[in-house]
Design brief:
single chain; about 100 residues; alpha/beta; 3 strands; about 20% strand
């Protein structure tokens, strides 16, 4: 039995590599996880390790082929960590200039 699905958004900041700790903690509590990274966050995180932990690809850009799934799984919870000042302001203003 799973507790639900946790969607994690990672922004480009110092604590970003620690997302694996969040993933492991969620898995210990029976949550499934998936990670979306801002384009700049991809250089902060270990994408292959995260994909191995979650079993899903890390998304950081719009789909590039018709074979890529369009939508993300329905999330029961969302965590943005680390959340940068820039990303919080974009969310508050409804700006969606990157994935």
């Amino acid at each position: 039995m799973t507790a639900g699905h946790l969607q994690i958004v990672v922004c480009a900041a110092g604590p970003a590599p620690d997302v694996t700790t969040l993933i492991n903690t969620a898995h210990q509590r029976s949550w499934t996880t998936a990670v979306t990274a801002t384009p700049h966050a991809t250089s902060f995180i270990d994408i292959p390790a995260i994909e191995e932990l979650t079993g899903t690809p890390v998304r950081s850009d719009y789909r590039t082929s018709p074979s890529t799934r369009r939508s993300l799984p329905t999330a029961d919870a969302l965590v943005i960590a680390p959340a940068t000042y820039n990303s919080i302001n974009k969310i508050a203003l409804g700006l969606a200039d990157n994935y």
